[in-house]
Amino acid sequence: MLIPSIDLQGGRIVQLVQGEKLALEAVDPEPWLARFARFPRVQLIDLDAAKGEGDNAGLVAAICARLPCRVGGGIRAIEGAEAVLDAGAHAVIVSSALFRGGAVDLQFAAALAEAIGPERVIAAVDSRGGHVAIHGWRTVLPITAVGAVRALEPYCGEFLYTHVDTEGLMRGTDMDAILAVRRATGRRVTAAGGITTRAEIDRLHAEGVDAVVGMAIYTGQLSLEEF
Fold it and tell me: CB-based burial of residue 2 (10 Å sphere; 0-12 exposed, 13-18 middle, 19+ buried)?
């Protein structure tokens, strides 16, 4: 399944290369919301909240009212997760808050799952250079994605695996890394990071993995008419 991605920064839809360099922006989100309306899942990330530089809470709520969104970005506490769900999100994407001291924070993961239900928790495991990367991919931990997934499995309904090394480059993704995560868990798995072609999406679908795509859609390299 293709899951379109919406990243918000400064009240606009943006696409960044490697999470840093602005590649494009859309001042008016309306055309994209209309194009994504027929998809059963849309991924919505508040980059400002993720970076601790304000938030786009009003826009997030407005988009959630129109699209079936899973929302991430700056969710660091149970109250934050509850607020996002109250704003209309179907599930929350949690990343850095699930790790502490270089390891999985099992206490927080368990508390979050108990508070909102594991089925509404999507654990984001981002990998850079073979290891989990948090804090906007700037902090690399001594734990692998597979290790993190195995530890977090009891506390979430789904994993979002992002292969940071290929994110935003539109040169294809790392199938072997994604499939290693797929084999490590019985939970639903969604992959992101450089997925560019229909062939990649079809390959992932055959392996039971959904594909989050951003840059290839916004640049027109991947046509939504194919789906």
Answer: buried
Dist. CA 81–CA 84, nearest whole Å: 5
Which residue matches tokens 């499939």? 179
Q: What is the pTM of this model?
A: 0.94
Find the catalytic residue in 46, 48, 55, 126.
126
pLDDT in tens, 57-99: 999 999 999 999 999 999 999 999 999 999 999 999 999 999 9
Say if residue 29 is exposed, middle or buried (CB neighbours under 10 Å; 0-12, 13-18, 19+). middle
CATH number of 2-226: 3.20.20.70
Active site residue 165: no
Alpha-helix runs per DSSP H in the chain? 30-36, 47-51, 57-64, 78-86, 106-116, 145-152, 175-184, 198-206, 215-218
Residue 7 is among the residues annotated as catalytic for this protein: yes
* CA torsion angle 169 200 198 194 (round to 10): -10
Q: Which one is catalytic: 7, 46, 55, 210? A: 7
**Domain range annotation of the chain:** 2-226
pLDDT per residue as tens digits for the range 167-188:
877 788 999 999 999 999 999 9
CA distance 196 to 39: 18
